[in-house]
Amino acid sequence: QCPGVELLCLDLADWDAVEAALGAAGPFELLVNNAAVAELQPFLEVTREALGRSLDVNFGAVLHVSQIVARQMIAQGLPGAIVNVSSQASQRALRDHAVYCSTKSALDMLSKVMALELGPHKIRVNTVNPTVVMTDMGRLNWTDPQKSAAMINRIPLGKFAEVDDVVNSILFLLSDKSAMTTGSSLMVDGGFLVS
């Protein structure tokens, strides 16, 4: 239970429903875009359905929800912060992740453009780019010991991220402690990208 937090369960692909619900719920000062899907397929086997769903959730929903919230912030004259949850996969090619890596790379660039255009309105936009996180989705895709060992061996800290590792990074980027940080990607990858 978090006082002042109202949960909205929405189909992010239904833009009209999202717009109506968020329009009635605002104004907002903070936004975290965390919805994502990871439909893993080898490049030569990527289906149109997997591509469309991934683009809709990993990219399109972030763009749309951010537009709605940012417009409200601007109309109210409120400063704000937006954090988009990306991935280390936006920076490094991973086998069977053609669509996931690509949508997360697109999300990183969208976040930079948002930071550029929303900065004059005192709205900061950043990404958090974690390694594998031990969520339900993370466990689903990384429970095979051979697959997980290969990834963990590339992480200098020798483990996957826990949810709190990501949450604490998001809280930092939402807070005034990061008041001069916008257009940045905070890697929460245990050193994966330096290995």
UniProtKB/TrEMBL annotation:
User: What is one GO biological process annotated to this record?
Assistant: xylulose metabolic process
Keyword Oxidoreductase in record: yes
> Which UniProt key words apply to this protein?
NADP, Oxidoreductase
Q: Is Oxidoreductase among the key words of this record?
A: yes
Gene3D superfamilies to which the protein is assigned, alphabetical = NAD(P)-binding Rossmann-like Domain (3.40.50.720)
Q: Name one GO molecular function term.
A: carbonyl reductase (NADPH) activity
The family line of this record is:
Belongs to the short-chain dehydrogenases/reductases (SDR) family.
Outline the subunit composition.
Homotetramer.
- Name-wise, this protein is DER reductase
Gene expressing this chain? Der
